[in-house]
From TrEMBL:
GO molecular function, one term: 6-deoxy-6-sulfofructose-1-phosphate aldolase activity
GO biological process: 6-sulfoquinovose(1-) catabolic process
Coiled-coil boundaries: none
Full protein name: Tagatose-bisphosphate aldolase
The species this protein was found in: Nakamurella sp. A5-74
UniProt keyword list: Lyase
Record Gene3D superfamilies: Aldolase class I
PANTHER family according to UniProt: SULFOFRUCTOSEPHOSPHATE ALDOLASE
One Pfam match: DeoC
SMART domains: DeoC
Lineage, top ranks: Bacteria, Bacillati, Actinomycetota, Actinomycetes, Nakamurellales
Length: 294
């Protein structure tokens, strides 16, 4: 197990509920949130930064302030949500370091940092925890690969700054790979991705639901004592609740939910958005809290 130091242990407490289960509302999306806001006749690209920032602020005020923690981006949401007093003093702040999109090298995908954002920036923005996304294909990447070195480097940099790092992993279909081959390999890729990240020093993982109770147990074994939380990956709320219950029953430490909570509660109309976040998304958050405590 990659042991937490004292600062990291306190940070883990900050993003956990009273029962010690990790529970984070994810709102660091940019293009994905624009798509959720756009109506059937609207182009998401027409939603400007000001509109997106207003939606993120409402999402924090009317939903995430009822959760232990919120994940936000340093491009649109921060520092305004902190500086304007929108974020509750009782809700921890997780700062996403990854930029939208990815670059490709030798057929593999690599995420990029938001320009100028470092572990020190997380402190400057008032953050308690950092999060970085890596795309992984552990059937083609080992401990000597570029992605493995990138994970090691950031784990070390965050530790030096006194910041707990959430290592988020997403597996993906390779160019030329059939859907059938990828789906058959998917669960094993999630398991082996967790194993690789832990070998590189990861202390907290954010992972896709691997597909079954047996595979959740395999992830827990691969994580070797490192806590992992399941992400919603855009599935509907009812599906995610069942995934969370299964993951928790087989060793997961919590959940990090974004679109499953709020994707049908955002609107370019502020009054409609606030009503839906209060009366649709917030009850879902309560149900998710019950699921992680199950």
């Amino acid at each position: 197990m990659n042991a937490l130091n004292t600062l990291e242990r306190r940070a883990l407490q900050a993003i956990s509920n009273e029962q010690g289960r990790i529970l984070i509302v994810a709102a660091d999306q940019r293009n994905g949130m624009r798509a959720a806001m756009a109506g059937p006749e609207e182009d998401p690209k027409d939603i400007d930064v000001t509109q997106l920032a207003a939606a993120k602020a409402d999402l924090v005020e009317y939903l995430a302030n009822n959760a232990p923690a919120i994940l936000l981006d340093p491009e649109v949401a921060l520092p305004a949500i902190v500086d304007d007093g929108v974020l509750s003093r009782d809700t921890a702040l997780v700062v996403g370091l990854d930029a939208s999109g990815f670059e490709t090298q030798d057929g593999l995908q690599y995420t990029k940092f938001v320009d100028g954002v470092t572990p020190r920036t997380v402190r400057d923005l008032g953050g308690d925890v950092a999060k970085m996304l890596w795309y992984t294909r552990p059937d083609r990447q080992d401990e000597d690969s570029r992605v493995a070195q990138d994970i090691r480097d950031l784990v070390e940099a965050c530790e030096a700054e006194g910041i707990l790092l959430i290592v988020e992993l997403l597996t993906y279909e390779l160019e030329g790979e059939t859907d059938e081959h990828y789906q058959a390999a998917f669960g094993g890729l999630v398991v082996e991705g967790a194993r690789l990240a832990v070998a590189c020093g990861a202390k907290l993982l954010k992972l896709q639901y691997p597909g079954s109770a047996e595979l959740c147990a395999a992830v827990t074994e691969a994580a070797a004592g490192v806590p992992w939380a399941v992400l919603s990956a855009g599935v509907d709320h009812a599906t995610f609740i069942q995934q969370v219950r299964t993951a928790i029953a087989h060793g997961a430490a919590g959940a990090m939910a974004g679109r499953s909570l709020w994707k049908d509660s955002l609107s370019t109309s502020a009054s409609t958005r606030r009503d839906l976040l209060t009366n649709r998304a917030r009850p879902r958050l309560r149900e998710l809290n019950d699921a992680v405590n199950s």
